[in-house]
């Protein structure tokens, strides 16, 4: 069975969550995760060789619902997207936002179970109220430490009962309103309740980052690099020097797609065209791409090969 680390031909392989745990245990590895929000952006990241993907909750909310990240997405919205992303290439671990767990202890347990069954390798749970908001906005409201720790305990219980595995990342947004000491207390309690990784959202300085790594040791820590957010723009190398094990760039796809699509729409509306294929040749991103080129990113070649090997004739003469 795949869950036992065996492939159908009996050879041993690592599951996605086993790979993620191995990376966390590697003292020389910093896990750098590009943020993706749909199948196309995930396929692009996979094509470029990303060894771990991160599913952004904000990006999922905006792409699936067309709404801002204000606690609008439900478990079904998030799980459906995560399942699709995790199974584009099941050998590549996916870390996915799970917000607050979408309810009380029973609902948190259901969320964790659903993510495990979807093939997600890691998730993070936070201590905001259910009607949460993006961690880099003001005015966040928190549940009590007891309720937060209950969420993590419920997640750990569900993991144990599932006969599967998932890396549980405990996130706290307490720094903004309660201060550093309270945030650390919450993370320490979450780790004691079963969390594998600690995530202090919204830190504002290198000094806080250094203190976090020191105060949470030996628990691996997680950094969120949000363009224009409240936290420093730490590079992967910065995170390595500080001592982080995971660094995500959740808005990576969104922040580059936005100006490119906006520019193309503006050209269409103002000039009545989107640019000729010969214009800007040699400049990546400044030419138009054929359907075949775009389909190749999403597995056209593999689909054709599969059909031919199965005896199909639909693509015998190419596509």
Automatic annotation (TrEMBL):
GO MF term list: methylisocitrate lyase activity
CDD domains: ICL_PEPM
Keyword Lyase on entry: yes
Top-rank lineage group of the source organism: Eukaryota
Catalytic reaction(s) noted: (2S,3R)-3-hydroxybutane-1,2,3-tricarboxylate = pyruvate + succinate
Keyword Cell cycle: no
Key words of the record: Lyase
Name of this protein: Methylisocitrate lyase-like protein
Organism (species): Polyplosphaeria fusca
